[in-house]
From TrEMBL:
Residues 48-176 form the Nudix hydrolase domain. The keyword Signal does not apply. Its cofactor is Mg(2+). Gene3D superfamilies: Nucleoside Triphosphate Pyrophosphohydrolase. This is NUDIX domain-containing protein. PROSITE patterns: NUDIX, NUDIX_BOX. InterPro entries: Nudix_hydrolase (IPR020476), NUDIX_hydrolase-like_dom_sf (IPR015797), NUDIX_hydrolase_CS (IPR020084), NUDIX_hydrolase_dom (IPR000086). Pfam families: NUDIX. It comes from the Bacteria. Keywords: Hydrolase. Belongs to the Nudix hydrolase family.
C-alpha cells in the first residue's frame, strides 16, 4: 500500500490535487503541490525532494571519527560525522559503508542501524539513516572530485566543546554525540 493511500484516512490528510515541478538538480528537486485541506479549502506546499542519506557513528579506541568540511549554505566549516546521500537504488547500509570508507579511510567490519529520521518534514522528504560501528579496519579514503575534508578522531569532551563553539551544529552529528554519550554511560542506545 502506498503512503498516500495508507495516510488518506488521517483526519488531517492533505490530498494532492496538482504538482508543478520547479527545479531538477543533481541532489534535490523542488516542486509545488496544490493540496486540498481537511476543511475543503486548497493551499500550496513547496516540497524539496531528496533521495535520502546515511550517516555513521564510528567509534575507534574510544573516540568518534568526524570530518571537517566547508558547508556553503552555512558559509562556514562544520565538523560532522561521515555522511552522504544515497545513490539511486542503493541500500542504506551499503551507502553507510561506502561513505565511511570514502571519507575516513576506515571500513566497518560490522555495523548496525540505530535509527532513521526526517531532517525537515515541513518542506523536505529527506530521511537520514544513522548507523553505528566500533568494529573498524583500515581501508582507503577516496573523496569525490568536489569533496575537500579532513578526518579526525575526537573524544566526547572535544565533541561537547565543538558543540559549544558551534563547530558541530547539524542534527545528525548532535544526535550522534548524544547517542554516543548515552552508549558510554549505559552500554546501550
Amino acid at each position: 500500500m502506498s503512503k498516500q493511500k495508507e495516510n488518506a484516512h488521517h483526519p488531517f490528510y492533505e490530498e494532492t490535487i496538482g504538482t508543478k515541478s520547479i527545479f531538477e538538480g543533481r541532489m534535490i528537486s523542488l516542486q509545488v503541490d496544490t493540496v486540498r485541506l481537511p476543511n475543503g479549502e486548497t493551499a500550496t506546499r513547496e516540497i524539496v525532494r531528496h533521495p535520502g542519506a546515511v550517516a555513521v557513528v564510528a567509534i575507534m579506541d574510544g573516540k568518534m571519527l568526524v570530518v571537517e568540511q566547508f558547508r556553503k549554505p552555512l558559509d562556514k566549516a562544520q565538523v560532522e560525522i561521515p555522511a552522504g546521500k544515497l545513490d539511486a537504488g542503493e541500500e542504506p547500509e551499503a551507502a553507510a559503508r561506502r561513505e565511511l570508507e570514502e571519507e575516513t579511510g576506515f571500513r566497518a567490519r560490522s555495523m548496525r542501524r540505530l535509527n532513521s529520521f526526517s531532517t525537515s518534514p515541513g518542506f523536505a522528504d529527506e530521511i537520514i539513516h544513522i548507523y553505528y560501528t566500533d568494529d573498524l579496519e583500515q581501508g582507503e579514503a577516496h573523496l569525490d572530485d568536489e569533496e575537500f575534508l579532513t578526518c579526525e578522531a575526537i573524544t566526547i569532551e572535544q565533541a561537547q566543546r565543538y558543540i559549544e563553539e558551534g563547530k558541530i551544529c547539524d542534527a545528525k552529528t548532535l544526535l550522534a554525540v548524544y547517542a554516543w554519550r548515552l552508549h558510554t554511560l549505559t552500554g546501550s542506545f
